[in-house]
Amino acid sequence: MRQNHRPLNIIVVISDTLRRDHLGCYGNTKIRTPNLDRFAQMSVVFDRAYCGSFPTIPARTDLFTGKWTFPHRDWSPLPRDEIVLSQLLSQAGYTTMMIVDTPHLVRDGYYFDRGFHGFIWVRGQENERYRTDPAEVKFPCDPKKIRNPYTSFVQYMRNIADRRYEETTSLPELSRRQCDGLSEITSVNASSFTLTCLTRTNLGTRQDTMPNFTPTRTSKARKSSTRVIGIGAISDRGRIAPLSRPLLRRSHHG
User: Top-level CATH class of 10-124+160-244?
Assistant: First the structure.
């Protein structure tokens, strides 16, 4: 007889941009990514997965709708008549939350927060219209070396003007808000879905700064229903390259 199991909590982390060749679990020996390596060792690794497109918005449109959308839709808002993943999970009884520092998803009517019961937006990434001070921005180099120096770059420098320490930068702040969101969402419902979208994290350029999602021991009174599912990183050719060493357990599915 098939037993009824408690629905799993689901956490999806999208990192823009994450280089596969910067991860230790894919063979890199020069850059330290211990948390992701440890996560990968206890996960299923998808090494034959393909993405439909690379740009931030088209790629997330594919993920939200489950369709190959890039050939038919460019960088544009999420259509309001399109059925999306958050909507389906909410209808299935999940409490859903989006935690994001990617401004393109929620500004100017792009509507990617649709269907979530709640969302947290960590402000100040890229050229988001967030800060107006300082009025004068000092360029660190010749402006000719910078893409969109007098618009996007100037705005971003204003956004980060008060950031003095690493913990005040976007990724640590997003990680803290993510932990708060996870605590909140799991306390109100037996099953939850959390989507975290990170912008320009450059993971691995110094060391692994990804939050550690390794399941911790829980008390007998309340055991977590979250399971480690999988890890995958898209290569520069749009597929997940085979592992160079037998470090991880692989799936047999694409």
Answer: alpha beta
